[in-house]
């Protein structure tokens, strides 16, 4: 990827993006592949979690999902029809290295061999994510991300995948949204593996970052090309105080620390935010951080992936006080905000998606500008952006989703504004290519620009897919 050039404000009624801009769509292995027990794949934490009663809506699992494992050719043909020049996918760790350790699984890696070749034959650049939440269950049984050894198993896995695919994949990202893995998986228990321990969440956060750094080292020591790009995908956002009061501003500082700076500061500055450590010192001494870890975590990256969906609006709550002995409230409710459980979360103003998330493109523009001002001119790729709506085919078999079209238009306009303001933005990936298994929401939420009938596995291009195809073909967004 070469550096982008600032685009024109408007040419022929379109907001034009640079010629080298990456236009893509994104997916994740467990959400689309299915084939959960085929060709040597072993269970992941999401197989276990989704099979546990009460964890996933309607008891849905990713056992079949969108059956991408058996429909690879059809799905790449759809990408080609849409004109995508890039496609972001994740590799299933338990498919490629069953049980989390040991030799590579030939049948498992062969699937990704075929996928990469199909993409390249269609002139679509593969963008590979090594970890999108599907930790092998055997590693979780040994402590998961609270066990430091998991980071070293990840680096070994990264090297194995790079050895097989490094000659053809030019863009690599280590982790997807480690905040979700650590804070939702080990803090609030809303995601796999479903643990509810604030200390475990912070420990997992550090070991995920260590895995990232070790993974970067492993990739650079492997057979990936000299021009290959290596990065990390996070889900930062704009955290706004509900008022200018000192308490509300401090609430925003706390959540910004746990949502944004706890990931970006170690990777881009080689240090943890001192205020985050101070906010959590009553929970842990941070002794899981060993000498040399931060140097490893701060290994040079070539790009930062940003997943953006909505801003946050927060306010002060009552700080926790002494708990009477024997009180039923002695154990706080599980939370993804270690040390800041008392912060109130409010609904930002604006229209809502089917997830109940506020549509606010200004948050994206604000976030991109903030990253540049705080961390310098690091190349950024919007690796996920999209919206869920309750899509259904009409009597003619068409899927009309005007709200999603407007969502994409607004956020691409915000991305264009960031480009014109000097942000080094290299690409945009809509989430998602296909309707899929939406984690704890099962199949109840549809993010795809391509509709999937889960009974027949038929694919239908939504209006948003056709709109996006037009944007790609013309290199710009209609004003």
UniProtKB/TrEMBL annotation:
- SUPFAM superfamilies according to UniProt: (Trans)glycosidases (SSF51445)
The organism's taxonomic lineage, starting at the top: Bacteria, Bacillati, Actinomycetota, Actinomycetes, Micromonosporales
Single GO MF descriptor? beta-glucosidase activity
Q: What is this protein called?
A: Beta-glucosidase
Q: Which biological process, per GO, is one annotated for this protein?
A: cellulose catabolic process
Please tell me which top-level EC class this enzyme sits in.
hydrolase
Gene Ontology cellular component? Answer: cytosol
What Gene3D superfamilies would the database entry show?
Glycosidases
Under catalytic activity, the entry for this protein gives: Hydrolysis of terminal, non-reducing beta-D-glucosyl residues with release of beta-D-glucose
Q: Where is the active site?
A: 177, 384
Question: Of which family is this protein a member?
Answer: Belongs to the glycosyl hydrolase 1 family.
Q: What is its EC number?
A: 3.2.1.21
Q: Which residues bind substrate?
A: 31, 132, 176, 309, 431, 438-439
Species per Swiss-Prot/TrEMBL record: Planosporangium flavigriseum
Supply the Pfam families for this chain: Glyco_hydro_1
Report keywords, A-Z: Carbohydrate metabolism, Cellulose degradation, Glycosidase, Hydrolase, Polysaccharide degradation
């Amino acid at each position: 990827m070469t550096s982008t050039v600032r685009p024109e404000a408007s040419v022929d009624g379109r907001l034009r993006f640079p010629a080298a801009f990456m236009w893509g769509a994104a997916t994740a292995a467990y959400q689309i592949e299915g084939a959960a027990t085929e060709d040597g794949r072993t269970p992941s934490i999401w197989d276990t979690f989704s099979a546990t009663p009460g964890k996933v809506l309607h008891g849905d699992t990713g056992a079949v999902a969108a059956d991408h494992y058996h429909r690879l050719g059809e799905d790449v043909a759809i990408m080609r029809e849409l004109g995508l020049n890039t496609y972001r996918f994740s590799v299933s760790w338990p498919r490629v290295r069953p049980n989390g350790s040991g030799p590579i699984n030939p049948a498992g890696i062969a699937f990704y061999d075929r996928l990469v070749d199909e993409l390249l034959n269609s002139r679509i650049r593969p963008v590979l994510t090594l970890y999108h939440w599907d930790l092998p269950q055997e590693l979780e049984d040994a402590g998961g991300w609270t066990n430091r050894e998991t980071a070293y198993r990840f680096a070994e896995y990264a090297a194995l995948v790079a050895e097989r695919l490094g000659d053809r994949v030019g863009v690599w990202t280590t982790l997807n949204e480690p905040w979700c893995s650590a804070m939702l998986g080990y803090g609030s228990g809303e995601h796999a593996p479903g643990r509810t321990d604030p200390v475990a969440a912070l420990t997992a956060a550090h070991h995920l970052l260590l895995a990232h750094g070790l993974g970067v080292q492993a990739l650079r020591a492997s057979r990936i090309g000299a021009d290959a790009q290596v990065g990390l995908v996070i889900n930062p956002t704009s955290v706004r105080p509900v008022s200018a009061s000192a308490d509300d501003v401090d609430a925003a500082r706390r959540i910004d620390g746990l949502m944004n700076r706890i990931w970006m500061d170690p990777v881009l500055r080689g240090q943890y935010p001192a205020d985050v450590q101070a906010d959590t010192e009553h929970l842990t001494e941070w002794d899981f951080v060993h000498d040399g870890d931060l140097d490893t975590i701060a290994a040079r990256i070539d790009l930062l992936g940003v997943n953006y969906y909505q801003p946050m609006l927060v306010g002060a709550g009552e700080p926790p006080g002494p708990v009477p002995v024997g009180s039923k409230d002695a154990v706080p409710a599980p939370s993804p905000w270690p040390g800041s459980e008392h912060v109130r979360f409010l609904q930002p103003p604006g229209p809502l998606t089917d997830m109940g998330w506020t549509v606010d493109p200004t948050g994206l523009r604000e976030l991109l500008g903030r990253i540049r001002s705080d961390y310098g001119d690091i190349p950024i790729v919007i690796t996920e952006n999209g919206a869920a709506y309750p899509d259904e085919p009409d009597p003619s078999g068409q899927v009309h989703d005007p709200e999603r079209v407007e969502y994409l238009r607004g956020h691409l306009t915000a991305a264009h504004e960031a480009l014109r303001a000097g942000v080094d933005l290299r690409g945009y990936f809509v989430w998602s290519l296909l309707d899929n298994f939406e984690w704890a929401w099962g199949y109840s939420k549809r993010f795809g620009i391509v509709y999937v009938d889960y009974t027949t596995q038929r694919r239908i291009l939504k209006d948003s897919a056709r709109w996006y195809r037009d944007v790609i073909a013309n290199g710009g967004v209609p004003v």
